[in-house]
Amino acid sequence: MPPRVLRCRTCGAILNPEIQVRPLLPPEPVVLPEAPSVLPVTPRGSYVGCPNCERELRIANHYEGRQVQCKFCSAPFLYQRDNAAIRRIGRYLECPHCHKELRMAEKYVGCRVACKYCDGQMEIVAPPAAGR
Q1: Residue 65: CB partners within 8 Å, gap ≥ 6?
Q2: Which residues contact 105 (CB under 8 A, 6 or more apart)?
Q3: Long-range contacts of 68-72 (CB under 8 A, 24+ apart)
Q4: Distance CA 115, CA 7 (A)
Q5: Cα distance from N-terminal residue to C-terminal residue, the chain
Q6: How confident is the model over 18-56, as pLDDT tens digits?
Q7: CA-to-CA distance for 10 and 78, rounded, in angstroms?
Q8: pTM of model > 0.70
């Protein structure tokens, strides 16, 4: 406040003609960054090596516990998660944000990751065991 401000005793108005009253303006709003949403995602299937010819196969989760056949050598085998004869290569899933298919290593199950296409945050959830 400038020195020697004269005010009216009844209404409080400033009586000094040289003092300009500036209106008080509210501060500009600050836009906060959007908090990323972390969505749980279950892999839709796995990439495994055929126990007979070792070629890479893509097998959906709903074949868990069933007899499947290699499309390259036609050898049948039981597709189970704990089968030691099957070499697990990776998993595949769909990004819940951009809906593109992603391939990931087994080590990322249970971790929070970001989509390589849209940077959408997701948490990889292990699929339930067969028969549950």
Answers
A1: 78, 79, 80, 130, 131
A2: 90, 91
A3: none
A4: 65
A5: 75
A6: 877 777 888 898 888 877 788 999 999 999 999 999 999
A7: 95
A8: no
> Could you tell me which residues are beta bridge partners of residue 60?
45
Structure token digits, residue 106: 């087994």
Q: Is the CB of residue 88 less than 8 Å from the CB of residue 106?
A: yes
The answer to whether 89 and 104 have CB atoms below 8 angstroms apart is no
Structure token pair of residue 105:
């290593």
Nearest one of 129, 122, 131 to 98, comparing CA atoms: 122
Query: Which of 38, 45, 37, 40 shows the shortest CA–CA distance to 102?
Result: 45
Distance CA(42)–CA(114), nearest Å, equals: 14
